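Researcher: I'd like a candidate sequence for this fold, 311 residues long. If you have to choose between options at a position, lean toward the conservative one.
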């Protein structure tokens, strides 16, 4: 933005009587840039990362320009603490863009998550499979619900939606294979019930079904938090709302403020009582299994998917 753009933006927010000099505008911009640069280059090696949430959203960086994606990564630690890990603009949401973004986080010390949660964006998934081939992947259950409903008639969406979410009811089993088996039986019933009536919806539902139930390997009290990435969407929505009011001057500063530390509208951290000694031990046991899975690193994207499915 030019100095004149900044002056106009602040005038819109603060009123014409709050006009600032060019030097003051320059100091404001430099202070924001310095603060963001410090945050963007901080060491990520100390956090006990377990869950990593990834998403991208498009923002218009300047008037007349096409909207460009902003890539974001959130973490939740073993203690249930949330933090915005990384934020960066990109030309697209391609595999190269996501791989470069994640490689940058790893270079700064980010360890492989036990579980990566995201939507089904192809570039995002491919990038994750390259950078974190040993991590389990959870497909966002909310995104998948929207995809399934979009494939069926509007007048029947309520019926399908109720049946879909019934699949994710508590299984009554301890986390692991038995719990996943219960969910799979429910999924088979769902597909049989709607297969003839809404074949496109069921085909969409059955695709990459394994990743829809990865969360069932983790502590039961965490399930409602880690089976979707919706809180990132809410944070992006809040950022977009504020940018419309404030203008793009503060776009880089608003995203961290909107939900960092669980204080914002996203509330991404675990609820009080969800992180117990039992759940921590459960995560530690899954972490001990991670090196064994790392020895199975595939050489191609195709074999990566096979390893993830087997897990």
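Model: Candidate sequence:
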């Amino acid at each position: 933005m030019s100095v004149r753009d900044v002056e106009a933006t602040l005038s819109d927010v603060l009123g014409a009587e709050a006009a600032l000099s060019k030097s003051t505008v320059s100091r404001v911009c430099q202070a924001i840039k310095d603060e963001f640069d410090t945050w963007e280059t901080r060491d990520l090696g100390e956090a006990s990362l377990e869950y990593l949430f990834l998403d991208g959203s498009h923002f218009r960086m300047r008037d007349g320009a096409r909207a460009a994606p902003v890539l974001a990564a959130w973490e939740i630690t073993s203690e249930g603490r949330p933090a915005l890990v990384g934020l960066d603009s990109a030309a697209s949401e391609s595999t190269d863009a996501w791989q470069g973004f994640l490689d940058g986080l790893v270079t700064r010390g980010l360890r492989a998550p036990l579980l990566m949660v995201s939507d089904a964006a192809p570039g995002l998934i491919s990038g994750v499979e390259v950078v974190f081939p040993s991590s389990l992947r959870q497909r966002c259950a909310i995104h998948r619900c929207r995809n399934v409903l979009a494939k069926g008639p509007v007048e029947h969406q309520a019926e399908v939606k109720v049946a879909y979410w019934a699949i994710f009811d508590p299984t009554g089993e301890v986390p692991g294979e038995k719990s996943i088996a219960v969910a799979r039986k429910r999924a088979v019933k769902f597909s049989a019930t709607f297969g003839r009536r809404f074949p496109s919806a069921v085909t969409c539902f059955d695709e990459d079904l394994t990743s829809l139930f990865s969360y069932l390997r983790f502590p039961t009290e965490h399930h409602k938090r880690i089976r979707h990435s919706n809180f990132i969407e809410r944070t992006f929505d809040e950022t977009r709302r504020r940018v419309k009011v404030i203008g793009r001057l503060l776009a880089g500063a608003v995203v961290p403020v909107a939900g960092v530390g669980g204080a914002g509208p996203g509330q991404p951290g675990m609820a009080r009582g969800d992180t117990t000694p039992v759940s921590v031990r459960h995560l530690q046991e899954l972490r001990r299994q991670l090196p064994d899975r790392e020895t199975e690193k595939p050489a191609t994207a195709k074999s990566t998917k096979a390893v993830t499915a087997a897990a």
